[in-house]
Amino acid sequence: MSDLLWTEKETSESWPAAGGEGEESSPANTPLLETERLILRRFREEDMEALLAIYGDEEANIFLPWFPIHSISQASELFEKSYRDTYRAKRGYAYAVCLKSDNIPIGYIHVNMDESHDLGYGLRREFWHRGIATEACRAVIEQLGKDGIEYVTATHDVENPRSGQVMKRLGMRYCYSYEEQWQPKDKRVIFRLYQLNLDGRDERVYRRYWTESERRFVEELG
Questions:
Q1: Between 19 and 195, residue with greater pLDDT
Q2: Which of 3.30.70.1150, 3.40.630.30, 3.40.190.10, 2.60.40.10 is the CATH number of 33-217?
């Protein structure tokens, strides 16, 4: 789902050094990307204050499943469990979104490496409404296509339609809605699933959430 960070892991003899450039890990894992305004790179150990600002943002956290973090130690724990482990895999996409002006992370983008190829993104609230999420996600999706990923999905809470607008601007198509008990906040949420088929197979729809949900339906969206 779009607001979750679960990634495929693998055992490796080499441990990447801080998730930065020049480390012993696959170049296919979170390759460096640039856009007109942005640098998309791996998170590093020196990014803990920025990571705290992103994941500690109370307003941005409303539509995320986890609770906001409140300390550098929690940011470090998040980095170790959700990012450093990800960077150990042969392939992965777990980006820090940075402005070119200072290369400090202001958000994140990730793509799950399971069969959902789920795209997730988040920005600190002071950077909302500038087209940054769309610009960053478009660059990552372009990289997915180059890497042979056949499709990408994304979901958003129906109470957060602006996230759906980002998906539409990326060329993603609404497929269906479904209800889920969201953890760890333990609340019922209705999500809309969007999908973009990068290989031209427009008829393909990722159906796992539809199959697993007891309540699923297709909305008439304007």
A1: 195
A2: 3.40.630.30
